[in-house]
Specification:
Length: about 200
């Protein structure tokens, strides 16, 4: 089985698709998990200004009008302003947990790819070996050791590629998971700092 014949090996196509998906997800997560994306400095300054001025309604409206991790956490805290600082911090803490779980669910796609790649690669290798021996058998006495060696040299390729996909996906998952945890904790700390600026109304 010549290496070019791998194009007829559909499990190998799945391995390539998984590799492309892992790369696309990695690029997407790298862009989405930037601190400036999740917690724009300008937004932090706007919230600080509004809260320091006592314009809590405007701060709440700003959080509701903007998407993002910081807005959801601060907005959750401000929604409990009537219950005092403890209630606001509890609400923001719960929002932090939700944000962390949401990021974790997104990252699980990389984990899934890392789990699926090896068995799919093994299936592709089995298909490659079966076709190699089938091709050699069909040649009958005309088959030579070189014909068998040519097919066997290509057969391990899908398994090798799937192992690389697995390592890449699991490593990316672990790194992004640590990054997500650190970011959510930092954003939660900033949000709590904003909420402690809130002064009870007389």
């Amino acid at each position: 089985m010549a290496p070019t014949q791998l194009i007829y090996n559909w499990p190998f196509h799945v391995v390539i698709a998984l590799a492309a998906a892992a790369l696309a997800l990695t690029v997407s997560f790298a862009a989405a998990m930037r601190r400036g994306h999740l917690m724009p400095a300008r937004l932090v300054r706007q919230l600080e200004t509004l809260i320091d001025r006592g314009e809590y309604k405007q701060a709440t409206d700003l959080c509701e009008s903007r998407s993002g991790c910081l807005c959801r956490i601060v907005g959750s805290g401000l929604s409990e302003m009537h219950g005092g600082l403890d209630s606001m911090l509890t609400a923001s803490g719960n929002a932090c947990e939700k944000e962390a779980k949401m990021l974790e669910r997104r990252l699980r796609w990389l984990l899934l790819i890392g789990i699926l790649a090896p068995p799919v690669g093994f299936a592709a290798t089995v298909v490659a070996l079966a076709r190699t021996f089938g091709a050699v058998a069909s040649m009958g006495e005309a088959a030579t050791p070189a014909d068998l060696a040519e097919g066997l040299s290509a057969a391990p390729l899908p398994l090798s590629v799937s192992a690389l996909v697995m390592l890449f996906s699991l490593l990316a998952y672990a790194l992004f998971r640590m990054r997500a945890t650190g970011l959510v904790l930092h954003i939660g700390s900033v949000a709590n700092g904003l909420l402690t600026r809130v002064r009870p109304r007389d």
